[in-house]
Amino acid sequence: MSDHNVIVLGGGLAGLGFARHCPGARVFEAEAEPGGYARSHEFAGAWFDQGAHICHSQDAAWLELVCAGTPLHEMSKSVVLNHKAGLWFAYPVQNHLADLPAAERDAALADFLAAQEKYRGREPQNYEEWCRFQYGDYLLENFYRLYTEKYWHVPMRELATDWLGGRLLPSQVENIIAGARGYQEEKQAVFRTFRYPKRGGFFALVAPLYGGVDLRLNKRAVRVDAVKRRVTFADGTEEDFESLVSTIPLPQLVAMIPDAPADVREASGKLRALRHYCVNFVVDREHLSEANWFYVYDPEIAVSRVSFPFSLSGEANGRTAVQAEVFVPGDARPAEESLRDKAVDDLGRLLKFQQAEVAASEIRCEPVSYVVSDLARAAAAAHVRDWLRGRGIETAGLFGNWEYLWSDRAYASGRALAEAMGRAK
Ligand SMILES: Cc1cc2nc3c(=O)[nH]c(=O)nc-3n(C[C@H](O)[C@H](O)[C@H](O)COP(=O)(O)OP(=O)(O)OC[C@H]3O[C@@H](n4cnc5c(N)ncnc54)[C@H](O)[C@@H]3O)c2cc1C
Fold first, then answer.
1. How far is ligand 1, taken at its centre, from the CA of residue 398, in Å?
2. Which of 4, 134, 217, 352 has the fewest CB atoms within 10 Å, measured from its CB?
3. Ligand 1: distance of its center to the CA of 406 in Å?
4. Whole-number pLDDT of residue 169
5. How confident is the model over 282-305, as a mean pLDDT?
6. Residue 195 — φ and ψ, nearest 5°?
7. How far is the CA of 339 from the centre of ligand 1 (A)?
8. Residue ranges of E strands in 85-193
9. Distance 372 CA to ligand 1 centre (A)
10. Which residue, judged by its Cα, is nearest atom 7 of ligand 1?
11. Considering only 3-7, 70-74, 132-136, 209-213, which range has the smallest mean pLDDT?
């Protein structure tokens, strides 16, 4: 394809996967660094990612690619916890009912067993039904609904079930019964093992792969003329293309194409994503928690996930790095300083450290984060992508496909597109 003029918008993993398999492709990235959501940065002597990132891929080819040049911390038994109303219990809750007070444990187990009978063979139509059929009413009402509304900011019945693969464990009756009796050996099975770079954060895994890619930084696309096949950038420059591959968020892409028709704009308007804040700080104390990360159910605490970067990279240096993640609806604009201060304050109470022990803190925002897998998503994204394809614009990646993809899959989606376009030529 080297004689074919291909432009890629976005230098994250999907753009990288495409460019490495399409010689001659030029990648235009809005930011000053590549990596997109897989970027890491150093703050107060610790490496932080854009939200907890670990490598739990089972894809042998991907592992060979990313593990070759990077010294890794290999975790064989991760510790993942939950917190609710002063109680710490292992993740996922249904496999560790013995961690709950006896009355809660019994109610949860009774409802779980009843659900196995009552809903046998029923096909769930939404996430609320999926949880009810899998786990029963008690776990649904007291855990899953609480967390979903806090994290996704969407009623459960508006969420689809197509995002669940690899996240929640399918119902395993014996395990759950054993867990209620306290016999659960496994602290959790999803993400039980993972790899993480010893230095440089998650991005160190993929940084070497950018060598040889024609990458143009600080190039934010602002307009796409699908008829003239021309992209205009924020710095006023323009580039012509024969093929355009976009990995930037679909709604942003549609907004920069002046002649996108009303039905496409309407479909694009249905695509929802969360806004993501990371509060990063370092506490002058060696040990704050046995967990690698934990989830917070309490509705009065905005933070939903907390991770400990030194525990991921396997460092021990007398301090603890903490990353607290807050997800809000895409159009929410919370005051950042008070969000940061309250997060640090709330975690001081949960993890029992004093504010005077906090060496430094910062807050960072990713305006477009997890794609909300509501019932409208799949059809709306397909409509937009079909229209774009008809204009010679292909899309790939987490935000180009507008569906949740882990990092290995984001890269693979770019690679698959390059291979398909190479065959089509
Ligand atoms: C909170 C969170 C946690 C995650 N945790 C994990 C994990 O633990 N393990 C794992 O394997 N995966 C994880 N992932 C998934 C992983 O981060 C993504 O799959 C991957 O980084 C997506 O790559 P991408 O190229 O598709 O998108 P992006 O990384 O978003 O790349 C798109 C690029 O386009 C650029 N861009 C945007 N607008 C423009 C414009 N107008 N012009 C030019 N460039 C533009 C952006 O700056 C960005 O670099 C997580 C994702 C999230 C959101």
1. 6
2. 352
3. 9
4. 59
5. 96
6. -120, 150
7. 23
8. 87-90
9. 15
10. 53
11. 3-7
Q: Which atom of ligand 1 is nearest to the CA of 57?
A: 11
Instruction: Using alpha carbons, select from 28, 31, 30, 35 the residue that is nearest to residue 66.
Output: 35
Q: How far is the CA of 13 from the centre of ligand 1 (A)?
A: 7
* C-alpha torsion sign, points 241, 247, 253, 256: negative
Burial, 252: exposed, middle or buried (Cβ in 10 Å; 0-12, 13-18, 19+)? middle
pLDDT digits (tens, 9 = 90+) for 38-52: 999 999 999 999 999
Three-class DSSP category at 31: coil
The per-residue DSSP string of 257-321 comes to -TT--HHHHHHHHT--BEEEEEEEEEESSS-S-S-SEEEE--TT----EEE-HHHHHT--SS-EE
Q: Whose Cα sits closest to atom 5 in ligand 1? A: 53
Q: Do residues 20 and 415 make contact, with C-beta atoms less than 8 angstroms apart?
A: yes
pLDDT digits (tens, 9 = 90+) for 153-200: 999 999 999 888 645 555 578 889 989 998 766 555 567 889 999 999
What CA–CA distance (Å, rounded) separates 213 from 34? 11
Task: State the helix-helix crossing angle for 102-118 and 127-135, rounded to 10 degrees.
Answer: 110
Length of the chain: 425
**DSSP-assigned letter for residue 3:** T
SS3 at position 395: strand
Which residue, by CA, sits nearest to atom 49 of ligand 1?
36
Q: What residues does ligand 1 touch, defined as CB less than 6 Å away?
A: 9-15, 28-31, 36-38, 51-54, 220-221, 247-248, 252, 276, 369-370, 397-399, 405-408, 410
- Round to whole Å and give the CA distance between 390 and 411: 24
Return d(Cα 400, Cα 253) in angstroms, integer.
9
> Rounded to whole angstroms, what are the CA distances from 296 to 87, 333, 371?
10, 21, 21
**Tens digits of per-residue pLDDT, 344-398?**
999 999 999 999 999 999 999 999 999 999 999 999 999 999 999 999 999 999 9
Question: How far apart are alpha carbons 325 and 304 in whole angstroms?
Answer: 6
